[in-house]
C-alpha cells in the first residue's frame, strides 16, 4: 500500500494512535463462542500496520477470546476514539502472530506485563502463577500477539454534528468507499 493508496480510514486511525490520548486506543473485540453466542470485550490496540492493513492487540493465549478465535478466526473490532467522535468497525481474519511478539513484550511497561503473571484468564481466582517475572526480557509462553487482517471497514463520523457514514470494502482493485445513510 503506497502512501497515496492509503484509504482515509487507515490514515485517520494511524493519527489516532500517534496523536490521541491512551484512552483512544480501546476497542471492543467481538467474537462468537462455540454456542453461537456473541462475546465482546475491550482490548488495547497496540499497532496499526500497512501492506496489508492490519491491527494488533495482545492477549492471554489461555483466555476465552483466543479459544473462540481459534475455532472461528474472524472478528469485528468496534473502535471509538473519544477525542475524535468517530466509530470505526473493522472486520477481518485473526491469527496469532509470531513476528513482532517479542517487540510487543519489550514495548510494554513492567506494570502492564504484570497482568500476564496471575492465574489463567477467566479461571477461578487464584491458581498457580506462571513461571517468570514481568521484568524478564522474554515473554511467558501464554503471552499472545494477535493480528486482525482487515477486509471491511464501516466508519460513522459524528465530529461535525451531522453523522456521516462510509463503508469501505476491499477487492482486488483496492479499497473502495460507499457513502451510506447513518
Ligand atoms: C480498558 C481495558 C483494556 C483492556 N485491554 C485488554 C487487552 O489489550 N487484551 C486483553 O486480552 N484483555 C484486555 N482487557 C480485558 C478484557 O476486556 C477481558 O476482560 C479479558 O481479556 C477476558 O476476556 P475473555 O474472557 O473474553 O477472553 C482490557 C480491559 C479493559 C477494561
What do these coordinates show?
- Helices cover 17% and strands 41% of the residues.
- A hairpin with a 4-residue loop joins β3 (47-49) and β4.
- The chain is α+β, with helices and mostly antiparallel strands.
- Strands 1, 2, 3, 4, 5, 6, 7, 8 and 9 form a nine-stranded antiparallel β-sheet that branches.
- It has one domain (3-180): Electron Transport, Fmn-binding Protein, Chain A (Pnp Oxidase, Chain A, Roll).
- The model has no long low-confidence stretch (mean pLDDT 95).
- The protein starts with 7 loop residues before the first helix and ends with a strand.
- It is built from four helices and nine strands, in the order αββββαββααβββ.
- It has helices spanning 8-19, 64-71, 101-107, 110-113; strands at 26-32, 38-44, 47-49, 54-60, 74-81, 86-97, 143-157, 164-171, 174-180.
- The structure holds flavin mononucleotide (FMN).
- The site of flavin mononucleotide has 15 residues, from β2, β4 and α2.
β content, as a range? 35-45%
Alpha-carbon Rg, integer? 17 Å
The description of the largest β-sheet is: 9 strands, antiparallel
Secondary structure tally: strands? 9
Classify the secondary structure makeup into a structural class: alpha+beta
Q: Name the helix and strand elements from N-terminus to C-terminus, one letter apiece.
A: HEEEEHEEHHEEE
CATH class: Mainly Beta
Number of helices: 4
Low-confidence stretches: none
Say what the CATH topology is: Pnp Oxidase, Chain A
Task: Give the helix level as a range of percent.
Answer: 10-25%
Distance from N terminus to C terminus (CA atoms, Å) equals 28 Å
Bound molecules: flavin mononucleotide
Shape: globular
CATH homology-level superfamily: Electron Transport, Fmn-binding Protein, Chain A
The overall number of domains is: 1
Query: What is the average of the pLDDT values?
Result: 95
Oligomer: single chain
The CATH architecture classification is Roll
Amino acid at each position: 500500500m503506497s502512501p497515496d493508496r492509503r484509504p482515509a480510514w487507515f490514515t485517520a486511525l494511524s493519527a489516532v494512535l500517534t496523536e490521541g490520548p491512551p484512552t483512544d486506543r480501546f476497542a471492543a473485540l467481538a467474537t462468537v463462542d462455540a454456542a453461537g453466542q456473541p462475546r465482546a470485550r475491550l482490548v488495547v490496540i497496540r499497532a496499526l500496520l500497512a501492506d496489508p492493513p492490519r491491527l494488533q492487540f495482545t492477549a492471554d493465549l489461555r483466555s476465552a477470546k483466543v479459544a473462540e478465535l481459534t475455532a472461528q478466526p474472524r472478528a469485528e473490532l468496534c473502535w471509538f476514539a473519544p477525542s475524535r467522535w468517530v466509530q470505526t468497525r473493522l472486520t477481518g481474519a485473526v491469527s496469532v502472530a509470531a513476528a513482532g511478539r517479542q517487540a510487543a513484550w519489550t514495548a510494554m511497561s513492567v506494570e502492564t506485563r504484570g497482568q500476564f503473571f496471575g492465574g489463567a484468564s477467566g479461571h477461578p481466582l487464584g491458581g498457580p502463577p506462571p513461571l517468570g517475572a514481568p521484568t524478564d526480557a522474554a515473554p511467558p509462553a501464554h503471552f499472545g500477539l494477535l493480528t486482525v487482517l482487515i477486509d471491511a471497514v464501516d466508519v460513522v463520523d459524528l465530529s461535525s454534528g451531522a453523522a456521516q457514514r462510509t463503508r469501505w470494502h476491499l477487492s482486488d482493485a483496492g479499497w473502495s468507499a460507499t457513502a451510506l445513510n447513518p
